[in-house]
Amino acid sequence: MKISALKRTIVINSIILVVSIVIFICCIFFSIYQIKSSREQTNKINSETDLIKSKTQSIIGKSSKAKKYKDLYTQISKEKRTNFSGIKMDEINIKLKTIGDKYNITSREIKIAVPENLKDEPFKLKSFSVLLTTVTLNFRAYTDDRVFLFVREFLKSLNGFTILTIFDIRKDKEYSEDNLVSISAGSGNGNIIAKVEFYWYAFKEEDKTKNNASRKSSIIKMESSPNQ
Amino acid sequence: MFSSKTFVITIGNNGTIIALHHKKNIISKIFVEELSDDAKFEIEKIFKQNKNITIYILLDTVDQSYKKKIYPSIRKSDIYRIAKRDLFSDGDTQSIKNFLILSSRKTYDKSPLHSVKWNSETGAKLECLFISTSNADFINNWVDYLIDLPNRVVGIYMLPAEAFTFFKVIKNTIDNRSKIKNKKNDLYLLIIQNKVSGTRQMVFNDQGIIFTRVVNYNFTNADFIVKYEQDIYSTFEYLKRLYRDVALNELDIVNILPDSVIDLLKNSANPELNYINLNPNIIAKEVGNQKIISGNAGNSDLVISNVFANSKKFLKFTNDKIKKLEDFFVISTSIYYANAVSVLLIFLAIISNIYFHNDGEKIIEKFETDRLAASNELSRIKKSFLMETKENIDTITDSPERIDDLGKMQEIFGNIRDKNFEFYSQLKFIKNYSVKLDKFSIIGGSINSKIPTQIPNYQILFAGELINESGDIDDLFASFDDLNSAVRNEYEGNDVKIREMSRDMDFTKKYPSYPVTFNVNRNIP
Predict the structure, then answer these.
(1) pLDDT of res. B392
(2) Is the Cβ–Cβ distance between B277 and B261 less than 8 Å?
C-alpha cells in the first residue's frame, strides 16, 4: 500500500470525520435545544394550568365565601341591612326618646366617644365603612324588666352591631305613696338606676365617612333627657 | 480489512512463493525465482483481484541468525529496554532484526532438562532470543515492490521462528511416532525441505525455536546419508553447549522430506539416530487440508505458509518503510474507526432526537390536555358562579359587595352573644331565699374592640338585703349559709366571692335583715 494512497485516505477520512463530528455536535445541540424547548413549553403550559387552577380555586373560594356571606346576610334584619347612616345624634336622640318613652325610661343620658373609622381587617370592606365608638347610657326605670327591654330594643334599633361591656342596675330606694302617685301621673322617676356601656360598630356609606373620622378621644355629651 | 484471506510471501534464496490463503485453503499460489518484469506481471494479476488482502512477508533466507542472551533477575519492562538497547548497539544497522523475551525460569524449572545458563548457580531468570537476517538486495526489492502494491504490508516474519506454530500443530503426530521411551528432554530436530531455501534444520523445544540452519544436499549423491548424519551430529554438538546431559539417542529427529529421500534414510543403520519420517502430504493432512499441496510434493513451504497465515504471529520485523507505512496505517485505521464511531453516534443522536421529539410532544400533549381540563373546569365554575350571582341580583336588591360586607360583619358579630339578660335570668333562684336585690352589674372582661370576639369572661355582681323575719341571729346565720350554699351551687365551677358576715355582731340584737354581696367571675366556654 503506497504511503501516498494512505495519506490520501487519511485526508479523506479526516474530512469525513470532521464533517461527522460537526453533524454530531449539531445533533447534540439540536437535542439540547429540543429538550430545552420542550421543557420551556411544558413549563409554560404548566404555569398556565397552575394559573387557571389557582383562578378556579379562587373563584371556588369566592363562590363559597359569597354563598356563606349570602346565608349570613339573610340572618341580618332588614333595618340593619338598609341603615348605613353612621352615627347621627339626631336619629339617636329620637330613638332614645321614642324607645325610652315606650318603657317609661327617665333621666336618659347618653355619652358617645368620638368615633374611629376602622380600616384594617376584618373591617376592610368595599361597600361601607365601620365606625367604632364607645357609648355610655345612664337612665332610670320603674322596673328592672323595663331596663332590659329598653336596652334590648335600643341596641337593636342602632345601625350596625353592638357589644355590651358593662351593665349595671341599682335600686336606690323603695317607692313611697307619693312616688307611686307621681308615677301614675306620668311625672315621677323610677327607682332603678341603670348604667350601660357598649361598643357600637356603626355602618356608614364609604364616601360619607371620610370627613367624619376624627381621632380625638374627648367625650361628647350628646343628649339629656328633659326629665333629668 | 476484515477479510479472512491473507497473502503470505515466502522469500528465500532460491525464489519466492506468493500464496493467497483462505482459512485452510490456498486459493492461488505462484513461485517466482526472481522479481523480473514477467514475474511482476504474473504477480499483479493475483494482487489486482485482491486489493484489500493484507500481505505477510515470511523470510526463509540462509543467513538467519538466532542468538540467546541471558539477563539477570530484573523486571520484564526493564529487560525489554535493555534488550532493545543491546539490539541496536551491536553495530549492525543494516540487518533486519528483533528480539523475543522467552519464558521465565519458573516455567523452565518444570522441564527435566535444564538449559546450561538456567542453573541455580547463575541465578539468571530471563532469556532473550535475538533474531536477525541480512538486509539483502532481493529482500529489499521484494519489500519495496510489495509496499507499492495497493495491499497493506503488515510486516516481515522469519519462517523458522514462526514455524514453531507449525511444530506445535504436528507435535502430537511426532510424539505418537517417536521410538524414544521415557524421553528426558523436550527437544525436537525438524529437517524440512523448502522450495525457496532448500533443506533446513530447526530445533524446537516446548518454548520455541532453539536453533536453525540451512543444510543443502544433493540427494542423489552417494554420500548423502553420511553428510546428512554429520550435520545432525554437528547440530547435536551445538545443543550440548546449550543443555546439560542431553543425549543424541533421546533426540527426536523429524524428517519432513520427499518420499524418495525418506526411502534413502530408511537405509541408515545408525542406532543413535531416532528418525521419525514424514512426508509433506502427511503433514498437510495433520494441518487440516491435504489438498493444499500436490500428492507427490516434496516441499513444505506451502504447509508452513498456510499454518502461519491461520495462526497468531510470533515476532514481527520491520524496516523504516514498513514502519512508516504502519504508522500511517494506524492513523488511517484510527480515523476509520473514529468515523465509524462518529457515524454510530450520529445515528444514536438522530434516534435520540426522534425519541426526545416524540416524548416531548407526548408530554406537551398531556400537559395541554390538563390545561384544557383546567380551563373547562374554570369555565364551568365561572358560569356557575355567575349564575349564582345573577340569582342574587334577581332576588336581592343589595350589590354583591354589600352582601359580602354584611355577611362578613354578621360572621363576626353573629357569634358574639349578649349574655346580660341570661345572667340576670339566672338569678331566679334568689327568690327562694328571701333576698331583696338592689344591685346587679355585669362587667365584661377585656376585649379587643378592633378585632372583636366573644367576651371571654364576665364579672357578675349582685347585692341586696337578706330578710330575716324572726330577727333571730341564729335564723340569720342559717339563712345566710343556705343562701351561700345556693349561690355556690348555682355558680359551681366559677370563682364566687361572698362578703362574709361581720365578726363583731351583737348577739343580743335583732337582725330583721342583713346586707349580702356576691361576686362571680364567670368564664364563658
Answers:
(1) 64
(2) no
Query: What percentage of chain A exceeds 90 in pLDDT?
Result: 16
Determine the pLDDT at residue A183: 74
> Residue B330: is it exposed, middle or buried by C-beta count within 10 angstroms (0-12/13-18/19+)?
exposed
Contact criterion met (CB < 8 Å) for A14 and B449: no
Q: Give B343's contacts in chain A (Cβ within 8 Å).
A: 20
Neighbours of B245 (CB within 10 A): 12
Is A2–B424 a contact, with Cβ atoms under 8 angstroms apart?
no
Cα–Cα dist B132/A51, whole Å: 86
B343, A20: Cβ pair inside 8 Å?
Answer: yes
Which amino acid is it at A56?
Answer: T
* Range in A206-215, B83-92, B197-206, B443-452 with the lowest mean pLDDT: A206-215
Residue in B148, B342, B412 closest to A21 by CB: B342
Mutate to test the interface with B, among A167, A168, A215 (most CBs of B within 10 A): A167
The string of pLDDT tens digits covering residues A114-169 is 888 888 888 888 888 888 999 999 998 888 888 888 988 888 888 888 888 888 98
Report pTM: 0.58
ipTM of the complex: 0.71
Rounded to 10°, the helix B400-413/A3-75 angle is 70
Which of B405, B440, B441 comes nearest A128 by C-beta? Answer: B405
Q: Which positions in chain B touch A166 (Cβ < 8 Å)?
A: 441-444
Contact status, residue A157 vs residue A99, Cβ threshold 8 Å: yes
Sign, CA dihedral B111-B114-B119-B120, equals positive
How far apart are alpha carbons A202 and A217 in whole angstroms? Answer: 17
Tell me the average pLDDT across B423-449.
82
Task: Tell me the shortest Cα–Cα distance from B215 to chain A, in angstroms.
Answer: 36
A167–B396 CB contact, under 8 Å:
no
CA angle, residues B271, B189, B60, in degrees to nearest 5: 140
Closest CA to B273 of B210, B345, B191: B191
> Any idea which of B138-152, B327-341, B444-458 has the lowest mean pLDDT?
B444-458
Can you tell me the mean pLDDT for B198-206? 92
CB contacts, 8 Å: A55 with chain B: 378
Dihedral in degrees, nearest 10, Cα atoms A81, A87, A92, A94: -80
Half-sphere exposure of B34 (CA within 13 A, CB side): 3
Per-residue pLDDT for A213 more than 70?
Answer: no
Q: Which residues of A touch B47 (CB under 8 A)?
A: none
- Give the CA count within 13 Å in the CB-facing half-sphere of B291: 8
Which region among A38-47, B271-280, B476-485 has the lowest average model confidence (pLDDT)?
A: B476-485
The whole-angstrom distance between B36's CA and the closest CA on chain A is: 20
Handedness of CA B409, B411, B416, B418 (dihedral sign): positive
Question: Which chain A residues are closer than 8 Å to B425 by Cβ?
Answer: none
Q: How many CB atoms lie within 10 A of CB B311?
A: 14
Q: Report the C-alpha gap between B521 and B324 in whole angstroms.
A: 112
pLDDT tens track for B75-105: 777 888 888 888 888 777 788 889 888 765 4
Here the cell at position B394 is 334577581
